[in-house]
Specification:
Layout: H1 11-16, H2 26-57, H3 63-76, H4 79-86, H5 94-113, H6 123-147, H7 152-158, H8 162-187, H9 204-234
Helix pairs in contact: 2-3, 2-6, 4-5, 6-7, 6-8, 8-9
């Protein structure tokens, strides 16, 4: 599932996820700071472009075309986070990170880019807004974590905004995939029929249905987990030091 919040890891791993693990290397830390700043700036730029477009056009029909290059660059660049966790640069689960990143990259390239007919859908705005706001907060959170001090207001935003953004993003993702189904079925896109030299068949249309159905059991579990994480973290705000 292309979760907009990416909040399914434990509280401890969330706290240390952006901190370098390899001997606290200054080079690694500098690289991670640069990566998170680049992503933060990229997603902020994306937000500015979206807001400007919506104000100017008063509709979302051409919004995706306006932001497509920027979105593709910065969302696809998140594949580096799989590498970061796999080689031990950051303390996060590489399998979980891979699932989270792949789900978004799949939606971006396997659905929206592959099926141009859905690019004018209003539902794209739902997950674009959810992703963008989430990523601005998330990369800001990681940046300040690397500096050693996360402002409480940023922590609050990170563990609160998902309450609204996650359902909105999921609805946008599911409906975008659903709208792509008839076009995928009609074109036979990415499908393999028998007979063939490999003696196997694959239906991309059915695969997309499996993806849609997978949201039903996964969404409530992740959402419930994130609510528990919020209660654990936000219920203990920092207290001023005693003089």
């Amino acid at each position: 599932m292309a979760s907009p919040a990416k909040e399914s890891s434990s509280a401890e791993s969330e706290k240390t996820r952006s901190e370098p693990k390899m001997g606290e290397s200054l080079i690694v830390k500098a690289y991670l700071i640069a990566y998170n700043v680049a992503q933060m700036v990229g997603w902020t730029f994306l937000m500015v472009k979206m807001v400007q477009h919506l104000i100017r056009e008063k509709k979302a029909t051409k919004l995706y075309g306006e932001v497509e290059p920027v979105l593709q660059i910065f969302q696809t660049a998140a594949v580096l986070e799989i590498v970061h966790s796999a080689v031990g640069v950051v303390k996060s689960n590489p399998v979980l990170t891979g699932f989270q990143v792949f789900s978004r990259v799949f939606l971006l390239w396997g659905v929206v880019w592959s099926v141009p007919q859905v690019q004018t859908s209003d539902f794209i705005v739902y997950f674009l807004m959810a992703w963008t706001i989430t990523e601005i907060i998330r990369y800001s959170f990681y940046f300040f974590s690397l500096l050693g001090a996360v402002p409480y207001v940023l922590k609050w935003c990170r563990y609160t905004f998902f309450i609204v953004l996650y359902p909105i993003g999921v609805m946008g993702e599911v409906m975008t995939i659903y709208q792509a189904l008839p076009h995928v079925k009609a074109s036979g896109m990415y499908s393999l029929s028998l007979p063939n030299v490999y003696n196997i068949s694959f239906s991309y249309y059915l695969y997309l249905w499996v993806v849609i159905v997978s949201y039903l059991p996964v969404f409530p579990q992740l959402y419930g987990h994130m609510l528990k994480q919020r209660k654990k973290i936000i219920s203990n705000p920092p207290r001023p030091k005693q003089q």
